[in-house]
Amino acid sequence: MVDTLYIETSVEKNALTTKVKQHFRKADNVSIDKYGEVFNIRAQNFRQQKKNPALILAEKHGQRIIPTPSEYETGGDQNFYFSHMLNCIYDCRYCFLQGMYRSANYLLFVNYEDFAEDLREHVANSEATNPWYFSGYDCDSLALEPITGFAEYFLEIFAEEKMTKATLELRTKSTQIRSLLGRPTMQNVVVAFSLNPDDVIASVELGTPNLMKRLNAIEQLQKAGWRVGLRFDPVVWHQDFEKTYTKFFDDVFNIVDVEKVDSITLGSVRLPKDFHKIMSKLYPEHWLFKAGMELNQENMVTYTESVSQQLLGFCESEVIKHANSEKLFIYN
Ligand code: SF4
Fold first, then answer.
1. Hey, is 291 helix, strand or coil?
2. With contact defined as beta carbons under 8 Å apart, do 54 and 95 qualify?
3. What does the DSSP 8-state code read for residue 164?
4. How many domains does the chain contain in total?
5. Cβ contacts of residue 198 below 8 Å, gap of 6+?
6. Nearest CA to ligand 1 atom 2
7. Residue nearest (by alpha carbon) to ligand 1 atom 3
8. What CATH number is attached to the domain comprising 133?
9. Predicted TM-score (pTM) of this structure
10. Ligand 1, from 105, 144, 173: best to mutate by most atoms within 8 Å of Cβ?
11. Ligand 1 pocket, residue 139 CB under 6 Å
C-alpha cells in the first residue's frame, strides 16, 4: 500500500516511527529534514499522486489545538480540533483536502506525546464546562488505526481523571473499531459516523466501506455501550434523491438505536471558492461539480438556494420521522 516512507530525522527514533516502519517493511526509507520538502512542493499532481501515495512521518510543531469552524459544533460549549494526520486513504470527490493540499501523500505526525500534553493543558485551562475536541478534520479518525494506533493512544489520554470534563469526537467512515471494542467504554467519547446511501458511496466516496458495513460497526459500538453520532453530511443532490434518501434513512434507523444516538448532523456540499476551483479542474467531467451550485456571501460554493432547500428540507423531514429534532443540527 505504501512504497516510500519519508521520515524526518527528528522522529527517526520515535516509537510510532518504528511501528510504522515494521508495518511497511518493504518500503523505501528516505530521510528528510522537514516534511515541507516533500509535502509542500508546488508542482505536484494530486490525482497522479493519489494513485500511489507515500507516507511522511513528521513532527507537528506550533499550534496543535485549533478552534473549529462553526459547522463542526454539535455538543460542547467550546469546540476545537486537532489533526494527527493530513490526507486520507479514502477518496471522496467532495473532500476539501484535495483543494487544500497540493500533495496527496499521507502526512502522519508521530509526536502524539506533544498533542497529549497540549490537550491536558488545554483542558486544565479551559473555562468551558464541556470542551469538545474533534479529530477527523484533515483525515479519517479511524481508517488507518491498525497502523497509527491513534484511537488506542488518545482514548487513554481522555480516560485520565482530569480529562473527563472534555469530550473527544472521532469522525469516521471506517469500520476499524477494534481498539474501541477491546477496552472499557468511555462516556466522554463520541464516535461520529458519516453516512450516505450506497449509490452515493459508490459514486463519490471511493474506497470507503459500504453503508451496511458502517451500520454494522455502529450497531456493535452501541451494543457495547459507546456513544455514537450520525453525520448525514454532506447529503448529495442527484437525480431521484428523494427515492434514494427515503430508503437510506429507513435502512439507517432500522439498525441504529436512535434513542441512544448522541447527535445527528445534516449538511450539504459546501466548499471554499478556491478549493472548488482546484477540485473542479481535477475532475472537470464529474457530475458533482455540475449540479446547481453557486458562490454564497461567505465565499463558499454551495448548492443554489432552491436545490439546497429541496435537498436539506427533504432530508430533514425524513430524519425527524425517525429521530427527535432536538438531536438534529443542520448546516447549510
Ligand atoms: S473520509 Fe473524510 S477525509 Fe477522507 S477523503 Fe472522505 S471526506 Fe476526505
1. coil
2. no
3. T
4. 1
5. 210, 211
6. 140
7. 139
8. 3.80.30.30
9. 0.95
10. 173
11. yes
